[in-house]
Structures are given as structure tokens and as C-alpha cells.
From TrEMBL, chain A:
Its main location: membrane. Belongs to the cytochrome c oxidase subunit 2 family. It is found in: Cell membrane; Membrane; Periplasm. Keywords: Copper, Electron transport, Heme, Iron, Membrane, Metal-binding, Oxidoreductase, Respiratory chain, Translocase, Transmembrane, Transmembrane helix, Transport. Its cofactor is Cu cation. Its EC number is 7.1.1.9. Binds a copper A center. SUPFAM superfamilies: Cupredoxins, Cytochrome c, Cytochrome c oxidase subunit II-like, transmembrane region. This is Cytochrome c oxidase subunit 2. Residues 45-140 form the Cytochrome oxidase subunit II transmembrane region profile domain. Gene3D superfamilies: 1.10.287.90, Cupredoxins - blue copper proteins, Cytochrome c-like domain. GO terms for biological process: ATP synthesis coupled electron transport.
From TrEMBL, chain B:
Cytochrome c oxidase is the component of the respiratory chain that catalyzes the reduction of oxygen to water. Subunits 1-3 form the functional core of the enzyme complex. CO I is the catalytic subunit of the enzyme. Electrons originating in cytochrome c are transferred via the copper A center of subunit 2 and heme A of subunit 1 to the bimetallic center formed by heme A3 and copper B. It is found in: Cell membrane; Membrane. This is Cytochrome c oxidase subunit 1. Keywords: Cell membrane, Copper, Electron transport, Heme, Iron, Membrane, Metal-binding, Oxidoreductase, Respiratory chain, Translocase, Transmembrane, Transmembrane helix, Transport. One of its GO terms (biological process) is electron transport coupled proton transport. Residues 27-532 form the Cytochrome oxidase subunit I profile domain.
UniProtKB/TrEMBL annotation, chain C:
InterPro entries: Cyt_c/ubiquinol_Oxase_su3 (IPR024791), Cyt_c_oxase_su3_dom (IPR033945), Cyt_c_oxidase-like_su3 (IPR000298), Cyt_c_oxidase_su3-like_sf (IPR035973), Cyt_c_oxidase_su3_a-hlx (IPR013833). One of its GO terms (cellular component) is plasma membrane. The keyword Ribosomal protein does not apply. This is cytochrome-c oxidase. It holds the Pfam family COX3. It comes from Aquabacterium lacunae.
């Protein structure tokens, strides 16, 4: 299915907006604070004082923008016409000017006219919109299929089909930026948009993104691609994009998903086909090398060291770095369950979740789960001396 | 205390030294529609201030990027409680208060049909709002899943979620009883000669609104009951592992939620439809089509709910159906706008404060309507769903729509309520500065949304900083104007300061409410009045 | 506050539209509900004091309601309620029942959605990605089937229409007939017969509840069908449970009407209290028929 959209970057409307923006910028800058924030436009992400939809990087996004421009024009014209009449009347038909009230108050003809005309206008708006809806929903014949899983609060990517199949990783907000946010000292053009590992795709290929979630609803949004698709736990949904140019593109989670909702960005890196192939090859190799053998027997100190990293990346957001939890979040430090001699209890909680609040962590590897349990059993005031080996987790997984 | 029954035969008003109950009993045990109306209005204004302070918390945090004042948990609580308090505590009860005060007067009834149940509806709001506001102090804090309370996020909330669910149940019961009262009052208590098609528009819009309420509040009750049982009793309504579906919550919620937003705007249409003719000194243009348009909006509102769910991934046919149906609503809404303007056309207009708010309403609400229409175009919504564009849209229709109309109604009817005129300059300052600060607050949010700033975000990329700063400054200005209203307009008027109001303070105002003295006596129309042919005057 | 009823009204002059004087009942009832809501919200979270708070609130509320109704009945019997008020009662009862219909609509809607959309969807090819062993079957069409991934919902059997639900249908339908007979008798002034048939109706209502209680017991013990049995169990118990609760309320209404009849209330011409309760009962009946067909048969 091809979309009816025109070619991407040079369109006269965006010029109009560009000028508007410049003017607005000058105005705002003279009036307001922002000089204080040293920040520039982020290519593929938001621009400073951006007025309009982002520069489209796909035909769909361009088509959406065209629709928006069309809507603005139609609504603008109606607005000016309708309120032109109203303000003329306000100007001319006022008592202070000696206006005497007329006596008409009913006319079936005009009622019909101003029912039919808006009706026709609405149809005129709906027709082009319909085409874009149909194009947007057509996820068939994708070159690459990637599954994006929303976790509280990060995105997991699995390359399911096409070149790069088998690649799997999790993409998290850069921890230093999270700290900057807490400190109230934001900086950088990609503030809150920087991740440890971007989603990588080739240019000019149709990428189907399957979304789902592990805990609550998230939403996968990349404005420049014109996609936003909720990720619903237990269900799969899909959307697609075909980037027309290489570069970095940014989005954020767009469905309230708990406290760190503002901190689960999406970064998509679009590479040329050759670069993508190279990346995929390297990535797969590295993945293979890193893959843990669940039957390997680890030394406790190694598990604890590994577990500390796992904890920081996954658990600290809720249970806090000091393991104290808070509010509805249980403490790990001193927890009876963690201290329990039966290791199976904690393994079970990690694999299956608890109380709707603690999510299941099945997506972590056996080694990671074993490591983080061993870490929690031997940190802070917890001194159990117990070690959990990956094989035990594997056995509990069934 | 027998005065209420004391009628028939002898003319009333002369032997009523103890015309009405006094002291605290008068308010706590009220059965008089005017007193209950006053209680509702004061309650809702209080909630507006509380909800407004929460909004200022949001705006203060968003004044610049980075976290300064609140942590993300608290931020989400602020957002959620702001939405819930404004919708259920401020706007809806305010319209109910106006209905209580004005409907019996407008249709020539002695009171509401069920006076005690009327008071019960009011008093139910109090425990509900106490519990809702107190939920900030419960373990884990207030609910933080957004005012839409989407599952499964609600399943992660602490005990305050259950408190809120039960509180919303009794608020719903209050709304249903209040609506039944209004429906019955309108259907059964009109004075002879006040046929349905002669009723003032405010009565018409409220009749239709009341039907919407009766139809959808129970559905909300169902949705949050399922949330409750999923939380505590192991049901799987929204749990896929048991065959349920989180999206099902959204369908049920929005089946309530979309009519709900019209519940908050139709009475506003009614108020404006009364004020514009009064100050244009010309009859409302197209009364009949106004009634039909209102009914069409209400009926259509039942088949558009999924326009809030374009991003959930509906089938193409679903998206198209809901897109078309939604766009259709602009047709009857347009009819209303055109009729207002036609009413103004070749009138003899003056611009006292109620008229200013009404014209402001028409102008700014229409902007909100247009942005709604833009949201309804599914592909555009893909870009702006869950961004600040939507926040801008609904504040244009809710603040510049519902709230402006409430202020219009206040300035219009306050002479009848308090017996004093509100000095013009006071209202004009309130209007103009509110208009300006409102737009300063919410206009930049359109840009933020288009640029992709998601809503319910405690912190944001720095490129969004400027517009957020402008919005925050505007919000404090707008808030200040409402404090101004409280101290400069409301309290003096309630204390009876100001010029005594004549029975009909506005030259062109029509309707039975202007046939009784100002302030309206405790009891009015105890015997049905005799009306003139178009049911706007009492004769004999 | 019966003091508000003036003597001249009792002397045969019906006010055009009776407006009660100030009343403490609404405020008191709201206070009762405050404790109900507070208690209920904490109870589900396991607070020790909450059940007492809830019970106290309910008791308080019931006492207030009793006083409130007693006052209204007194007013009614003193002849303060004109025909116009009668019409108000009719409209209000009708729209109240409509709101109840919408409440059940939400749960029927949930059943529809689960059955037609979510369960089949979870079992389709796409969703094998997440739920490799999900059976997208609606349980009631395959006895013993569990529309859920293995291990998430224990196996259970579904509740067929035979025999209990059918007996219950018969009970409710019969109660509708006996109620109508009572109504005709009342209109013809045969008070003894009215009361007899009212008792019969109330009895049928309570027998229905007993049967339903047994049905639940059977479900839990023999069929392993529980509230936790996936979305089938959820919709089954919530729909039939809320219906049962409405039967209970309706039966209480009829019971009180019967007691009032015994006290000599109502006349062959004016008896909206009776009719309102009867409308409610018929509404409960109709909902049951919907349940019987949709939940048990289909
Ligand atoms: C008073 C409340 C109110 C009102 C009146 C409206 C009115 C409308 N709303 Fe709005 N809406 C909300 C309150 C309201 N809304 C709220 C609270 C939300 C967010 C909820 C949440 O998620 O928290 C929301 C969200 C919302 C969305 C979802 C956005 C999203 O989440 O992505 C959509 C999408 O279609 C929408 C559409 C509309 C439309 C088409 C109208 C129409 O009724 C507008 C019709 C009016 C006009 C069009 C202007 C006048 C007409 C003319 C002058 C005639 C000529 C015009 C033409 C022919 C074009 N609204
Ligand atoms: C129903 C009506 C209504 C009204 C009247 C308002 C009024 C306001 N709202 Fe509204 N808002 C909603 C309904 C409403 N809102 C809803 C439904 C949501 C969605 C919630 C959700 O996402 O779940 C929302 C969300 C929402 C957000 C988005 C939050 C987010 O996504 O995280 C923001 C952000 O700016 C905002 C701001 C404001 C402001 C500044 C006002 C102002 O108009 C308020 C002005 C009033 C006052 C400020 C009170 C008076 C002041 C005082 C008594 C204090 C003293 C004052 C000073 C010191 C200045 N609101
Ligand atoms: Cu994930 Cu918001
Ligand atoms: Cu809507």
C-alpha cells in the first residue's frame, strides 16, 4: 500500500511556520527567561520553541502534517468568517450606537443552510483523513518486525523477523540524566531523551513494531515517524514506519504508566542498509558472547557484583538504592521473605510478581535473577550468606 | 416552621415574620431549593479553589525543566486529583447549584420535586469530597492513575484508590438523585402554560443533561466497581491472564466519559442562550433548532467514545466510525454558535459583565471546539493524543467553556440571589484579566503538544522550557483573578454590599425569574402563576 | 419532624405541591454513608477497625432511612401528597429504574466484550507470541474449558441452566404473577387477598435467594467455579451477584409494602408505594430473564 503523501522536506507550509517560529522566538526570547537554558534544537527530537508538528521523517508523518495544515486552514477560515460577523455585529449593532433591535428570530431556511454546509465541510475533512487512516493501519509486508515491550520504566526490543532477527536488548534512560532531573539541574540537548542503547533500524525499510507491555499500559511514540501505539499488557498491537532518511529520532512514553512515566524515552537510530547489517552482525555476536550459560556455577562474590548492577538497573527505581522501599513498595532490606531460608520464595516472587505491584521479572536471564537475589540476600543489613545459582532459577521457571 | 405549607386561600408574604428557618438549621437541614442551590455553589467554588491550588502545584513544578518542588509520585497525584476535583467537585456541582436556584424560578414551580432528596444529593458531596481530598494523607498518597483511572495502573495504587472508588460511588449516587430531581421537576412542575417548547433554554439544556447523567453515571459506577473487585477479590475483568482486557476498562470508562464532557458543557450552552438574547434585546434566534441541536449533541455523544482511544490500536473500521461520528458533532454545535450570533445580529447590544463572559465564552469555546475537531481526525490524533495539545483542547472547552459560562450565569443571576448589583468595573476587571491570563496559560500548550510534549509528565526535555514557563506564569495570573473574584466580587455581594437590585436588573432579560423581587423571597410560586402567551411574564 | 404537618392539611386540604420543611434526615443519612465509605475503603485493605466502621455506618444509615421513610409515609397517610406528587413519584421511579438498567448494562457490556473480543483475541495466532497455550474458548460453550493460559486459572466447570437456574426462573416468574394478582386485588379493594398474595410474593423472592445461595455453594464446592475463575467467573458472579442483591432489595421493598398494607395503608385508587415496588420487582425479573438466557444458556 502506498500512501498519497507528497515528498518530504520542502513544503511551503512549513516555511510559513518557520517564519512564524522565528518571529515568535524573537518575541519570546526578548520577554522571557530562556536564555538561561543553554539548549539547541535536537535533530529528530524537539526543537526549541517548536510551534508545529515535527519535521516528518516518514510519508505518514508528512501526510498527518498535511492534514493538520488543511484543518488549520479550514478552521481558520471558518473562524475568521464566523467571528468576523460577530465582531461586526458587536461593533455595529450596539445600543450606544442607537441600534434598535430587529424582530426576526426564526428562519428554517438558514437553519437548514447552516446545518448542511458544515456537514459538507466535515465530509471534506473526513475524506483525506480516511486515506491516511487506511495507510497508517496497513502493517502488512514488513521488512523487519520488532517487538517493543513496555516495562516500568524502560523499553525492551526483540527483533523477531528480518535482518537482525534474534537481537534482544533493553533500552533505559541514561541514569545520569535521571539524577540531573532529581537535582533540578537539567542539561543537554537530549535531556531526558538519552538512552543506553537505541533501537536501530535500516533506512527505507518497512519496520513493523509490535507493542506489548509487561505491567501497565505504555505508549510507543515517535513523533517524527508519525507513530503512537499503546503497549497493552497481555495483548499485542502493531504499527509501522519506513524512515526516509538516516539519523537519530526521539520519542517518549505517551501513556501514564506510574511514577517514572516521564523517564522512559525512545531513541531510534536509522542507519543505511550496510551500516545496519554491520551493526546487526556485531550485535548478534556480542549477544552470543555475553549470553550466560544457566548451568554455570558462580562464585558468590561474582554473583553479588553482577547482582548489584542488575539491582541498580531494575529494582532501585522502586525499592530505592538502599533497599528501603516506601509507600506501597516493600522494603528489601530486612524483609522476612529475603531473609527466609527457603530461597524458592524469593525466586518465585521475582518470576511471578506479587500483589499487582511487584511485576514479574521473567524477562531477566536466569543468571541475572540469581545474581540479584544473591545480592539482596547479602546487602545492607541482610547477611544470609545464601547464594542462588542460575540453575535454581531455571528449575523454578519450569 | 409551618410556613412552607401555609398557602391556599390567603395571600402569602404578609404573615411571615418567621418566613424561613434561621441559623445553622436553615443550612444543614435545608429543603429550600434556593438554599440548597447556594450550598452547591459555595461548595463547588471551594472545590474550584482546591483543584486550582493543585493545578498551581503542577504549573509550579513545570515552570522549568528538572524537578524542583515535588517528586514524580506526588506530581501524578496532583494531576489526578486536580482532574477529579475539577470535574466532579467544581464544574458539575456548580451547574447543579445553578439548576437548583433557577429551574423552579424559571418554570414557575414552588420548589424542586423532591426537596429532601435534593438536600441529600448535596450532603453526599461532602463525605465524598472529604475522603477524596483526605486521600493525599493516606499511606501511599492519593490515587495517581490520572482522572481516567485506567486499569491496570489503578491495580498498583495504594489504599487511597479504594477510598476514591467508594467516594465516587456516592458522588455518582448524588448525581443520579440530583438528575432525577431535575427531570421530574421539569416534567411535572411547570406552571400551566409553560409548555416544553416555551421553556427557557437553561431548563431545556438541563433536562437533556440530566438524562445524560442518569444514563452514564451508573456505567462509571460499574467500571470502578470492576476495578475494585479486580484489586481485591480476584476477578479478571482487566487481567488478560484470566481472559479480561485492560482496554475494556477504557471502553466502559469513555462510554461514561464522553457524555460526561457534554454534561459539563450543555448547561453552559443553556446559560449563554439566555444571556445573549437578554443583552441583544432580541429573542433567541432559532429556539427550536437550539433544542434539537442540544438533543442531537446528547444523542451523538453516546457513539463517539472511542475517539479517546485512537492510540489503543482499534481496527480501521473502528477508527473510521468513531472519527466520523465525532466530527459530526461539530454540526449541531455549529448550529448553536450560529444561532447565538444570529441573535446578536441587528440586536441592540450592551455589554454588561454577563454579556462579556458570554461573548468570551462563544469566542474561546469555539477555539476549543476546533481543536477538538482536530483531535478527532484520527491520523492527527496519532500525533497529539496524550500530549499537551489535548490538555489545551479540554481547558479551552472546560475553563473557557464551562467555567466562563458559570461566571456569566453568576453575574447574570447574582442580583436575584443576593439582592445587590455587582459593580460593573469589578466584573470587567475579572473578565478581561481572566481572559488574557487564560490564554497566556493555555494557548502555548497547543505548541507544546504539537511538538510532542506528553501530558502527565513531571519533567520534560529542555526544548519545551519556554512555553511551559509562559503557561505557568499565566496560570498564576489566572488563579489570582479567581482569588480576586472571591474577595472583591463574591464576598461583598454575599454580605449585601452594593446598590439594591431591582426586580429586573437587565433591561432585555425575559423569563419568570425576573417576575419575583430581588433578592428572591424564600418562597416563590407556591401557587402556580398564570402566565402570558409566551410564558415569560406572570399575569394576574 | 412531623411537627411540620399543619392541622389544616389534615383537615382535608391537600396542598398543591407539598414541600417538606427543614429535615435532618438527609444530613444524617450522608453522615452514615461517610462511615460506610470510610469503612468499606479501609476494609478491603484489611484494617482491623474498618468492618466495625462499616457496620456502624450501615446501621446508622438504616436507622435514618427508617425515620425518613416513616416521616414520608406519615405525610402520605395524612393526605399531604397531591396527585401531582404522585406523578412525581412515578417519573422518579421510572428514571431510577432506567439508571439501574444502565448499571447492569455496564456488566453485560463487560461480558459481551470478554466473550466476543478479548478471549478470542487472546487465543488467536498473533497472541501466541505472548500466550502460547491460551485457549480462546468461551468456557460455557465447552464444559471444563478454561479460557485462560494454563496455570493461570484453575480448571472449573461452568454453570448450566439446569436445574437450579430454571427453577429460579420459575420462582421469579411466578412471583411476578402473584404480585400482579395482589395488585388487582388491591384495586378491587380485597385487602385480605392482597396481603396473602404479597406474602406469597415475598416468600418466593426469599426462596429464590436461598436457591441462589445454594447455587453459589455448589459452584464453589463442586464446580470449582469461583470469583477468581478468570473472566467467566468474574462476569458470572458479578452479574448474578448484583442481580441477587437487587432481588434482596426488591424483596425488602415488597416486605415493607406488605407490612404497610397490614397497617391499612394505601387505597384502591392511590397506592404508588405499592406500584413503585412492583415496578422494581418486574425490572429485577426482566434482568433475570436476560441473565438466564445470556449467562446460563448461551
Ligand atoms: C466541556 C468539555 C468538552 C467539550 C465540549 C468537548 C468537545 C469536543 N471534543 Fe473534547 N475533550 C474533553 C472535553 C470536551 N471536549 C476532555 C476533558 C478531553 C480529555 C479527556 C482526557 O483524556 O483526560 C477531551 C478529549 C478529546 C479528544 C481525545 C483527544 C485525545 O486524547 O487524543 C477528542 C478526539 O476526538 C475530542 C474531540 C472533541 C470534539 C470533536 C468536540 C466537539 O464537541 C466540538 C464541537 C465544536 C466546534 C467544532 C466549534 C463550533 C462549531 C462551528 C463554529 C461550526 C463550524 C465548524 C465546522 C464545520 C468545522 N476531545
Ligand atoms: C474541569 C475543569 C478544569 C478546570 C477548571 C481546570 C483548571 C486548570 N487546570 Fe486543569 N485539568 C482538568 C480539568 C480542569 N482544569 C482535567 C480533567 C485534567 C486532566 C487530568 C489528568 O490528566 O488526569 C487537567 C489537567 C491539567 C494539566 C495537565 C497536567 C498533566 O498532564 O500533568 C494542567 C497543566 O498545566 C492543568 C492546569 C490547569 C490550570 C492552571 C487551571 C486553572 O484554570 C485553575 C485556576 C484556579 C485557581 C488557581 C484557584 C485559585 C487560586 C488559589 C485559591 C490559590 C492562590 C492563588 C495564587 C497564589 C495565584 N490542568
Ligand atoms: Cu511508560 Cu509512560
Ligand atoms: Cu470525548
Amino acid at each position: 500500500m502506498t500512501t498519497p503523501a507528497p515528498s518530504i522536506p520542502t513544503r511551503p507550509e512549513s516555511l510559513t511556520f518557520e517564519r512564524l517560529r522565528q518571529a515568535g522566538m524573537a518575541l519570546a526570547a526578548s520577554a522571557l527567561t530562556t536564555a538561561a537554558w543553554a539548549v539547541n534544537d535536537l535533530p529528530g527530537g524537539p526543537a526549541v520553541r517548536q510551534f508545529d508538528l515535527p519535521q516528518p521523517a516518514t510519508r505518514i508523518a508528512a501526510a498527518q502534517q498535511d492534514l493538520h495544515v488543511m484543518m488549520l486552514w479550514i478552521c481558520g477560515v471558518i473562524f475568521v468568517a464566523v467571528f468576523g460577523v460577530m465582531f461586526y455585529s458587536i461593533y455595529a449593532h450596539r445600543k450606544s450606537k442607537g441600534a434598535k433591535p430587529a424582530d426576526f428570530h426564526e428562519s428554517t431556511t438558514v437553519e437548514i443552510v447552516w446545518t448542511i454546509i458544515p456537514f459538507l465541510i466535515v465530509i471534506g475533512m473526513a475524506l483525506p483523513a480516511t486515506k491516511v487512516v487506511v495507510a497508517q493501519k496497513d502493517t502488512t509486508n514488513a521488512d523487519i518486525t520488532v517487538k517493543a515491550t513496555g516495562y516500568q520504566w524502560k523499553w525492551g526490543y526483540d527483533y523477531l523477523k528480518g535482518p537482525g532477527e534474534g537481537i534482544q536488548f533493553v533500552s533505559t534512560l541514561d541514569a545520569s540524566q535521571r539524577a540531573l532531573s532529581d537535582a533540578g539541574k537539567p542539561q543537554g540537548d537530549n535531556y531526558l531523551l538519552k538512552v543506553d542503547e537505541p533501537l536501530v533500524v535500516p533506512v527505507g525499510k518497512k519496520i513493523r513494531v509490535i507493542t506489548t507491555a509487561n505491567d501497565v499500559i505504555h505508549s510507543f511514540m515517535v513523533p517524527a515517524f508519525g507513530i503512537k501505539q499503546d503497549a497493552i499488557p497481555g495483548f499485542v498491537r502493531d504499527t509501522w514506519f519506513k524512515a526516509e532518511k538516516t539519523g537519530d529520532f526521539y520519542g517518549q512514553c505517551a501513556e501514564l504508566c506510574g511514577k517514572e512515566h516521564a523517564y522512559m524515552p525512545i531513541h531510534v537510530r536509522v542507519l543505511s542498509e550496510e551500516d545496519y547489517a554491520k551493526w546487526a552482525e556485531a550485535k548478534l555476536k556480542a549477544q552470543l558472547a555475553k549470553a550466560d550459560d544457566p548451568n554455570k556455577v558462580w562464585a558468590q562474590a561474582d554473583l553479588i557484583a553482577r547482582g548489584e548492577k542488575v539491582y541498580a538497573a531494575n529494582c532501585a527505581a522502586c525499592h530505592l538504592p538502599n533497599g528501603k522501599g516506601g509507600g506501597a513498595i516493600k522494603a528489601i532490606d530486612g524483609s522476612a521473605l529475603v531473609l527466609d531460608a527457603d530461597k524458592g520464595k524469593q525466586i518465585n516472587v521475582l518470576l511471578n510478581g506479587q500483589n499487582n505491584i511487584m511485576p514479574a521479572w521473567r524477562q531477566l536471564s536466569d543468571t541475572e535473577i540469581a545474581a540479584v537475589i544473591t545480592f539482596t540476600k547479602n546487602s545492607w543489613s541482610n547477611k544470609t550468606g545464601q547464594t542462588v545459582q542460575p540453575a535454581e532459577v531455571l528449575a523454578a521457571r519450569k | 416552621m409551618t410556613a412552607v405549607l401555609d398557602h391556599g386561600g390567603h395571600a402569602h408574604g404578609h404573615d411571615h415574620a418567621h418566613d424561613h428557618p434561621h441559623g445553622w438549621r436553615r443550612w444543614l437541614f435545608a429543603t429550600n431549593h434556593k438554599d440548597i442551590g447556594t450550598l452547591y455553589l459555595l461548595f463547588s467554588f471551594t472545590m474550584l479553589l482546591i483543584g486550582g491550588v493543585l493545578a498551581l502545584g503542577i504549573r509550579a513544578e513545570l515552570f522549568k525543566p528538572g524537578l524542583q518542588l515535588v517528586n514524580p509520585e506526588l506530581f501524578n497525584q496532583l494531576t489526578t486529583m486536580h482532574g477529579i476535583i475539577m470535574v466532579f467537585g467544581a464544574i458539575m456541582p456548580a451547574f447543579v447549584g445553578m439548576a437548583n436556584w433557577m429551574l423552579p424560578l424559571q418554570i414557575g414551580a414552588s420548589d424542586m420535586a423532591f426537596a429532601r432528596m435534593n438536600n441529600f444529593s448535596f450532603w453526599l458531596m461532602i463525605p465524598a469530597s472529604i475522603i477524596i481530598v483526605a486521600s493525599f494523607f493516606m499511606p501511599g498518597g492519593a490515587p495517581a492513575a490520572g482522572w481516567t483511572l485506567y486499569a491496570p495502573l489503578t491495580l498498583q495504587m495504594g489504599p487511597s484508590m479504594d477510598a476514591a472508588i467508594f467516594a465516587m460511588h456516592i458522588m455518582g449516587a448524588s448525581s443520579i438523585m440530583g438528575s432525577i430531581n431535575i427531570v421530574v421537576t421539569i416534567l411535572n412542575m411547570r406552571a400551566p402554560g409553560m409548555t416544553l417548547m416555551k421553556m427557557p433554554m437553561f431548563a431545556w439544556t438541563w433536562l437533556i443533561t440530566a438524562y445524560l447523567l442518569i444514563a452514564v453515571m451508573p456505567v462509571l459506577a460499574g467500571a470502578i466497581t470492576m476495578t475494585l473487585t479486580d484489586r481485591h477479590f480476584g476477578t479478571s475483568f482487566f487481567n488478560p491472564a484470566g481472559g479480561g482486557d485492560p482496554v475494556m476498562y477504557q471502553h466502559i470508562f469513555w462510554f461514561f466519559g464522553h457524555p460526561e464532557v457534554y454534561i459539563m458543557i450543555l448547561p453552559a450552552f443553556g446559560i449563554v442562550s439566555q444571556i445573549v438574547p437578554a443583552f441583544a434585546r432580541k429573542k433567541l434566534f432559532g429556539y427550536h433548532s437550539m433544542v434539537y441541536a442540544t438533543a442531537s449533541i446528547a444523542i451523538l455523544s453516546f457513539i463517539v467514545w472511542a475517539h479517546h482511544m485512537f492510540a489503543t490500536g482499534m481496527p480501521v473500521t473502528g477508527q473510521l466510525f468513531f472519527m466520523y461520528a465525532t466530527m459530526l458533532i461539530s454540526v449541531p454545535t455549529g448550529v448553536k454558535v450560529f444561532n447565538w450570533i444570529a441573535t446578536m445580529w441587528r440586536g441592540s447590544m450592551t455589554f454588561e459583565v454577563p454579556m462579556l463572559w458570554s461573548v468570551g465564552f462563544i469566542f474561546v469555546f469555539t477555539m476549543g471546539g476546533f481543536t477538538g475537531l482536530i483531535c478527532s481526525v484520527a491520523p492527527i490524533d496519532t500525533q497529539i493524543q496524550d500530549t499537551y495539545y489535548v490538555v489545551a483542547h479540554f481547558h479551552y472547552v472546560l475553563v473557557a467553556g464551562s467555567l466562563y459560562a458559570l461566571y456569566a450565569g453568576f453575574y447574570y443571576w447574582a442580583p436575584k440571589w443576593t439582592g445587590v448589583m455587582i459593580p460593573e468595573w469589578k466584573g470587567k476587571v475579572h473578565f478581561w484579566l481572566s481572559l488574557i491570563t487564560f490564554n497566556v496559560t493555555f494557548f502555548p500548550m497547543h505548541f507544546l503538544g504539537l511538538a510532542g510534549m506528553p501530558r502527565r509528565y513531571a519533567d520534560y526535555p529542555m526544548q519545551f522550557a519556554d512555553f511551559n514557563a509562559i503557561a505557568s506564569v499565566g496560570a498564576f495570573g489566572f488563579g489570582l483573578m479567581q482569588v480576586y473574584f472571591l474577595f472583591v466580587v463574591l464576598i461583598p455581594a454575599m454580605m449585601g454590599k452594593g446598590e439594591p437590585a431591582p426586580q429586573r436588573p437587565w433591561e432585555g432579560a425575559e423569563g419568570l425569574e425576573w417576575e419575583v423581587p430581588s433578592p428572591a423571597p424564600f418562597h416563590t410560586f407556591e401557587e402556580p402563576p398564570k402566565l402570558n402567551a409566551d410564558a415569560t411574564r406572570v399575569v394576574g | 419532624m412531623s411537627a411540620t404537618i399543619p392541622s389544616h392539611s389534615a383537615a382535608g386540604k391537600v396542598p398543591y405541591y407539598f414541600v417538606p420543611g427543614p429535615s435532618r434526615h438527609p444530613l444524617m443519612a450522608a453522615i452514615g454513608l461517610f462511615f460506610v465509605v470510610l469503612g468499606a475503603g479501609q476494609w478491603v485493605n484489611g484494617s482491623g477497625w474498618a468492618p466495625y466502621c462499616l457496620a456502624f455506618g450501615l446501621l446508622w444509615w438504616a436507622v435514618v432511612l427508617k425515620q425518613w421513610f416513616a416521616e414520608a409515609i406519615h405525610e402520605s397517610e395524612s393526605g399531604l401528597y397531591s396527585d401531582r406528587i404522585d406523578i412525581s413519584f412515578r417519573w422518579s421511579m421510572a428514571w431510577f429504574i432506567f439508571s439501574e438498567v444502565m448499571f447492569f448494562g455496564a456488566f453485560f457490556g463487560a461480558l459481551y466484550w470478554a466473550r466476543v473480543h478479548s478471549v478470542p483475541e487472546l487465543g488467536n495466532l498473533e497472541h501466541q507470541l505472548l500466550w502460547p497455550d491460551f485457549k480462546g474458548l468461551w468456557p460455557s460453550s465447552h464444559p471444563g474449558a478454561t479460557g485462560a493460559p494454563a496455570g493461570h486459572v484453575e480448571a472449573f466447570s461452568t454453570m448450566g441452566p439446569w436445574p437450579l437456574p430454571t427453577i429460579n426462573t420459575a420462582l421469579l416468574l411466578t412471583s411476578g404473577v402473584t404480585l400482579t394478582i395482589a395488585h388487582h386485588a388491591l384495586r378491587e379493594g380485597k385487602r385480605g387477598m392482597t396481603i396473602a398474595f404479597m406474602w406469597l410474593t415475598v416468600l418466593l423472592g426469599f426462596v429464590f435467594l436461598l436457591c441462589q445461595g445454594y447455587e453459589y455453594y455448589h459452584a464453589y464446592t463442586d464446580l470449582n467455579l469461583k470469583l477468581t475463575s478468570g473472566v467467566y467467573g468474574s462476569t458470572f458472579f458479578m452479574l448474578t451477584g448484583f442481580h441477587g442483591f437487587h432481588v434482596f432489595v426488591g424483596a425488602l421493598m415488597l416486605l415493607f409494602i406488605t407490612l404497610r398494607l397490614q397497617k391499612g395503608h394505601f387505597t384502591p385508587e392511590r397506592h404508588f408505594g405499592f406500584e413503585g415496588a412492583a415496578w422494581y420487582w418486574h425490572f429485577v425479573d426482566v434482568v433475570w430473564l436476560g441473565l438466564y438466557v445470556i449467562v446460563y444458556w448461551m
